[in-house]
Amino acid sequence: MPGTRRALAAASAPAALSAQLSLFDVDPPAGSKAVLPVPVPAPAAPGGPAAPAPARPGPHVHPQAQRAIVLGLGHHVGYALRRARRRSIGFSVGTEGLTVSAPRWVGIADIEAALREKAPWILRKLQEQRERGQRIAAARVDWRDGTTLPFLGQTLTLVLDPQVTGAQLQGADAAAPGALPLRLHLGLPQGAEPAQIRDMVQAWLQRQARRVFEERCALYAPRLGVRMKRLSLSSAATRWGSASADGSVRLNWRLVHFGLPVIDYVVAHELAHLREMNHSPAFWDVVRTALPGFEEARGVLRAEVLPVFD
To answer: Suppose 78 and one of 61, 129, 180, 252 were both cysteines; which one would form an S-S bond, judging by CB atoms 3.0 to 4.6 Å apart?
Structure first.
């Protein structure tokens, strides 16, 4: 149908982590953060050292939490409760925490009974999201001479070099697997501001992304029997790519951090939408004809944490 558009979704992270992308939908950032009591250490025994407090997990609190419950062995979980027109209770665990959607007629006792029944799954997903948040926080870029970034699945070292003009890649061929090291010489003084370094690197990465995407689209379009009429770069916080029935394809420039197998998966995914504007079994069969074993690349795309630029 003309105007139909399909997209490979990714999740927007909280405001401090907005540069991150994944394949899972989560709720948008919320306002103030609720706080639950945290167990305190046991008091000191008379005449002796303080008795060690039993190890207890820290609280998992959604910023919009209205209610709290203890799940498993002392896991304090603050959750956002939303009443919706639905027939069953639904759970969603995102980067902000646990959201519960329930029909208006379901009582709190029934909701909490359902939470306890699903406690192992909920706690596992909350821990996964917490660990991912820690990895994202550690991925914030320190914009200076010697900083490293992933580029086409390899390590790119930034070198502030006022003797060059613009940004120049030096080292081994970036397209050759295992070709290290790669150095990006930037025509900036050692005292350059972090924002200057970031802007020059980002502009260079975007130019490289367009070059690589054009090459990969030219390779896969004939394999899929489709014609791409227009390619554009995206900076979306929630999409790896999208395709329209008119032959337009948009790809997120941040894909340039990944190796070619992951880029090829997203390229094949979006080009396949030019034949199947859905995610039906027929669509995945189309992807598989061009890229057998694409599941491995999809797994990397789902798990990887991108460098945080801001």
So the answer is: 61
Same domain, 217 and 117: no
Q: Judge if the upstream peptide bond of residue 181 is cis by omega within 30 degrees of 0.
A: yes
Q: Token pair for residue 42?
A: 């046991």
The single-letter code of the amino acid at 110 is D
Domain around 78: 7-29+58-138
CA atoms within 13 A on the CB side of 199: 6
Q: What whole-number distance in Å separates Cα of residue 13 and Cα of residue 18?
A: 5
Cα-based distances in Å from 131 to 32, 114, 124, 146, 167: 22, 25, 11, 27, 35
**Strand 248-252 to 230-234 pairing:** parallel
201 φ, ψ to 5°? -65, -45
Work out the mean pLDDT of the chain and round it to a whole number. 80
Query: Of 105, 138, 171, which closes a domain?
Result: 138
pLDDT tens string 148-201: 999 999 999 999 999 999 999 987 655 555 555 799 999 999 999 999 999 999
Among 129, 125, 145, residue whose Cα is nearest residue 305: 129
Q: What are residue 7's DSSP bridge partners?
A: 242
Residue where a domain terminates, one of 92, 115, 138: 138
Count other C-beta atoms under 10 Å from residue 158's C-beta: 22
Amino acid at 50: A
